[in-house]
From TrEMBL:
Reactions catalysed: (6S)-5-formyl-5,6,7,8-tetrahydrofolate + ATP = (6R)-5,10-methenyltetrahydrofolate + ADP + phosphate
Enzyme class: ligase
GO molecular function: 5-formyltetrahydrofolate cyclo-ligase activity
Protein name, per record: 5-formyltetrahydrofolate cyclo-ligase
Any Pfam family the entry gives: 5-FTHF_cyc-lig
Record's keyword terms, sorted: ATP-binding, Ligase, Magnesium, Metal-binding, Nucleotide-binding
Domain of life according to the entry: Bacteria
Length: 187
């Protein structure tokens, strides 16, 4: 299936989930994360959810990471498909971007080389670990700058597409895991 078709399908499916159901499913995803072997790492990058797009709520994830004394890193868009990464602390001020994404105003920048685990936003994914995002390339650009051994984890309310994504290109970065409310996919 083509990415544009999957974007349309999963935006619609996500819009049909009630805020209460999305919150419940987000908690299930976070609890499921406890089952995968990532807890010896120190630097965890996560997206900050866009509420209007009914994304997986990453606040419970951030609470879990901080409770385990992990360094939480969040992105800030700085240009055409480019992000910088900042340590999320008690003093970090967040501001909504033009796209409705909460972003740090400033803070302690963390280079990609330090990041051990990345929680990747997505709309859909397939059984090979390919993902479909919003199509701007921010995360693929970022993930290509991370170390090869950085663990990439998708978070999705929905299971994998059985049919492979047909228009994957050479810059697309595959996931290592994807967590859904029903199962853990490992690629």
């Amino acid at each position: 299936m083509l990415k544009r078709e999957l974007r349309k399908k999963y935006k619609k499916l996500r819009a049909e989930i009630s805020p209460t159901k999305a919150s419940d499913l987000s908690l299930i995803l976070v609890n499921t994360l406890l089952q995968i072997p990532i807890w010896d790492f120190f630097y965890f990058h996560t997206f900050l959810s866009i509420e209007e797009k009914n994304e997986v709520d990453t606040l419970p994830l951030i609470t879990l990471l901080q409770g385990k004394d992990k360094n939480v890193v969040v992105p800030k868009v700085i240009g055409e498909n480019t992000m910088e990464n900042y340590l999320l602390t008690d003093n970090t001020s967040l501001k909504l971007s033009d796209w409705g994404v909460p972003e740090p105003v400033d803070g302690i920048e963390v280079p990609e080389s330090k990041i051990d685990v990345v929680f990747v936003p997505l709309l859909a994914f397939d059984l090979q670990g390919n993902r479909v995002g919003y199509g701007k390339g921010f995360y693929d650009t970022f993930l290509n700058k991370c170390r090869k051994e950085t663990v990439k984890i998708g978070l999705s309310f929905f299971n994998a597409e059985d049919e492979p994504i047909s228009d994957v290109n050479e810059n697309d970065v595959t996931l290592d895991y994807c967590i859904t409310p029903e199962r853990i996919y490992e690629f």
